[in-house]
Design brief:
25 helices; 50% helix; 7% strand; disordered N terminus
């Protein structure tokens, strides 16, 4: 048993140590290293002999660990030191003139000329190489963003400037150029552009945040605080804003309020940088208590198990249907027997390699597993560790609730059965049938509803578990496969109970045959040997995030990571409207967060517009805010009913489309398949006619599609208003199998005559499909705090 305990410790520890390790420091007196402190914490409860064994094996793999992602990340112990001292000279150098579009073009050209004179030769060569290939503004901004991620800040600034020059009215490019300038050490050059954007989009939280970040980098904390406050009020779902607000609260002497912000940021995007900030205010223990229910809408999940993996049959709740009901139950019983045999065989096969290794002895078992685990560590590993902690804590509580709820249901139904079917003194066969029918109509719907709800909860959890288990350290000795197969057996038992628990009662006084069996097809067991691979778009370029390899060097432009640079801490959000600077999480806009050697893959965010009334009390009085820094309040934020406006509905639609496109980019990578040859795409992959949005029309009291047609169910009744994940917008999809439109509940869409809607090309608001195809998803940069200087060879007077 001890070796398996050590294995679970290794999986967690090997990933954790990569982000915690830091360069050795000279000490007058020897003190325990961070690694040893971590080891002590993780090995509580082990014997001295076991601890010694673990430390010995860890030292044997440390050389290899130092080569893995995150091994060179510098930890920090004081969050307040992330904020530079106030730089009055640079603050005074900021132009007071409000930029016009003409000023943007003129100033951008001026910056480019000064930049190209002073930047290092290798950065200039990179700019020359890319501009020779890039033919559009979107491709220039794509290359600028990749350069920024890869640590080529000067090349990134130059390419972003060229993108703005090629498309001077593109507000997303202006935001991104300003963000790159700020995070490259030149916030005073970014502020005029951001102030111009804030006057155009006074309630855009990304612009407000980036303005706050620029002022913060100049040490102007009070001004930064106002902008972060308004950014949070307009969008409470941006992790970068929460982190910046937290560090400002620390500067104001309130570490408790700061901790709240750090935990809030961690909920949005689990990340080692955020963990470090929470740890510094003694709030790390709060991170383990985050609820999966809150997290599940914010993480990418590959659907190993599709909805209705096994379709739960609804038995006819009538004694007259006994024979047919029994055929269904017998058919499923036979199918489950075959399925369980298949699962057992796969589970035995998946466990064989691990078992064979265990039989070689404890020492070899642990040494081999340590080496196998550390091979699979990637940039997603640390977020995966956090998410799996949350998943495992959730399922432990969920199983307790499920067991007690299930037992209570069965007991309640059994008690009602005794009462409802109790024989009267003069009861005849029709009386028995009537009472049994009444009981069936009461019991079976409750049973079906309970199991359907719990199965859906378990299915979603299992998809998340099997997705993120891969990202921790890969699949050493088929451990992920074995775990997922074990949970498949559990899920199968749930489906089995959902069918077995339904009552089939024979008609009284009539002999009925219960030996028949319906032929039930065996469901396909997901291939858990295939890790989920998430493709992150940068314009038409896609960078793949997988369990075994994340290499941003494999980009269309051949931009390699700059030597000796730290990974940028930032958030990239995705949208489909070139006139809208996307806001991470708001309306459900998807986003990724990078930082401290890790990547948190696309989070889906929230589609609600939630007012934060407390922020109003914390902000400076409106009369004291300079007019050019004052963003007018959006009345919708203070609306207690939070009723979505047409503009909000369109934003929700656009965000849903972006999420759908990102979800379609999640695939699996199976062993033995040759790698797909990477070629530059001419168009972004998008399927016409696949997605339609329908809205609830209060006047019609019905769901209507984009053509204004009402939605009906198969019986010709208007579909009732239901709570859906997109607020007042429901998502429907074209089903090739059913040759029909289906909604999120799996219901077919019919017109008022009961005819299925035909497949057709649809438009969504003002979305320009052609623009998405040719330029890809629109990527907006939100600045993030950094633990160390992100720019190597910083040029102080670059723009003088």
């Amino acid at each position: 048993m001890k070796k398996y305990f050590l294995l679970s410790l290794l999986v967690l520890f090997v990933t954790t140590v990569f982000s915690q390790n830091k360069p050795k420091q000279k000490e007058k007196t020897p003190v325990p290293s961070d690694m040893e402190k971590m080891m002590e914490a993780e090995m509580k409860g082990m014997s001295e002999e076991e601890k010694a064994e673990m430390l010995k094996m860890m030292k044997s793999i440390m050389p290899e660990m130092a080569k893995k992602p995150g091994s060179d990340v510098i930890q920090f112990t004081d969050n307040k030191k992330l904020v530079p001292v106030k730089d009055v000279t640079r603050i005074n150098s900021i132009t007071k003139k409000a930029f016009t579009e003409a000023d943007v073009s003129a100033n951008t050209a001026l910056l480019y000329g000064k930049l190209m004179v002073k930047i290092p030769a290798q950065e200039k060569a990179l700019v020359t190489t890319v501009t020779a290939k890039a033919k559009t503004a979107s491709s220039l901004m794509e290359a600028a963003t990749v350069s920024f991620i890869q640590g080529h800040n000067y090349a990134a600034i130059a390419l972003a400037i060229k993108a703005v020059q090629s498309d001077p009215k593109n507000v997303i490019y202006q935001n991104n150029m300003a963000a790159i300038l700020s995070q490259s050490g030149y916030p005073e050059k970014a502020i005029p552009y951001l102030k111009k954007l804030s006057s155009q989009f006074p309630s855009n939280s990304t612009v407000l945040h980036n303005l706050g970040y620029a002022w913060l980098q100049l040490g102007e904390v009070d001004t930064a605080r106002r902008f972060f406050g308004y950014a949070a009020m307009y969008n409470p779902n941006n992790p970068e804003t929460a982190l910046c607000r937290g560090v400002i609260e620390e500067l104001r002497g309130d570490p408790k309020k700061a901790a709240d912000h750090y935990v809030e940021a961690f909920e949005q995007a689990p990340n080692p940088f955020t963990e470090n900030m929470a740890k510094n205010v003694k709030a790390k223990d709060r991170l383990d208590k985050i609820d999966f229910i809150k997290l599940k809408s914010r993480i990418s999940i590959y659907e190993y198990f599709k909805k209705d993996w096994i379709k739960i049959p609804a038995l006819v709740d009538d004694v007259a249907a006994y024979e047919n009901n029994q055929k269904i139950k017998n058919g499923f019983s036979k199918m489950f027997s075959e399925l369980e045999d298949k699962i057992d065989a796969l589970l035995e096969a998946s466990s064989a390699e691990l078992q064979a290794l265990a039989e070689k002895g404890e020492t070899e078992f642990i040494q081999t597993m340590m080496k196998e685990n550390q091979k699979g560590v990637s940039m997603i590993s640390m977020p995966a560790v956090y998410i799996n902690k949350i998943l495992l804590a959730h399922i432990a509580n969920w199983q307790q609730d499920y067991t007690s709820g299930y037992q209570n249901l069965l007991e309640e139904i059994q008690q009602r059965k005794i009462t409802m079917t109790k024989s009267g003194k003069n009861d005849k066969c029709p009386d028995f049938d009537r009472k049994n029918n009444t009981f069936l109509q009461y019991a079976n719907p409750l049973i079906r509803k309970f199991h359907a709800t719990k199965i859906e909860e378990a299915r979603l959890w299992l998809n998340a578990f099997c997705t993120w288990s891969w990202y921790i350290t890969g699949n050493p000795k088929n451990t992920v496969l074995a775990q997922c197969m074990s949970w498949t057996a559990f899920l199968t038992e749930m489906y089995k109970s959902a069918i077995n628990d339904q009552y089939a009662i024979a008609k009284s006084c009539v002999k009925q045959n219960d030996d028949g069996a319906t032929d039930i097809a065996l469901p396909a067991i997901p291939n858990f040997t295939c890790p989920a691979v998430i493709s992150i778009p940068f314009g038409l370029d896609e960078l793949r995030l997988s369990a075994d390899a994340i290499n941003f060097d494999n980009n269309d432009w051949g931009i390699k990571k700059a030597a000796g640079v730290r990974d940028q801490n930032l958030t990239l959000s995705y949208g489909i409207d070139k006139n809208y600077i996307t806001e991470p999480g708001k309306y459900g806009n998807p986003a990724i967060k990078t930082g401290n050697g890790s990547i948190t893959p696309p989070s889906l965010g929230d589609d609600e517009l939630m007012p934060l009334s407390k922020i109003l009390d914390e902000l400076a009085p409106l009369t004291k805010i300079p007019p050019d820094e004052l963003a007018p309040l959006d009345p919708a934020l203070l609306n207690a009913d939070k009723k979505s406006s047409p503009g909000n509905l369109n934003a929700i639609r656009n965000a849903a489309m972006a999420r759908q496109l990102l979800n379609e980019m999640i695939s699996t990578d199976c062993p033995g398949k040759p790698p797909t040859k990477k070629t530059r795409k001419q168009k972004f992959d998008i399927s016409f006619g696949k997605i339609e949005f329908i809205e609830w029309n209060e006047n019609e009291n019905a769901w209507v599609n984009d053509k204004g047609e009402r939605m009906y169910d198969k019986d010709g009744n208007p579909i009732k208003k239901i709570d859906v994940s997109l607020g007042e917008v429901q998502f429907i999809e074209w089903s090739e199998d059913l040759n029909a439109w289906v909604n999120m509940e799996g219901e077919l869409m019919f017109d008022k005559n009961g005819t299925k809607f035909k497949k057709f090309d649809v438009g969504i608001g003002k979305i320009e499909f052609e623009d998405i195809e040719t330029n890809g998803l629109q990527t907006a940069i939100t600045n993030g705090l950094n633990a160390a200087a992100a720019v190597s060879n910083f040029i102080k007077d670059l723009f003088k």
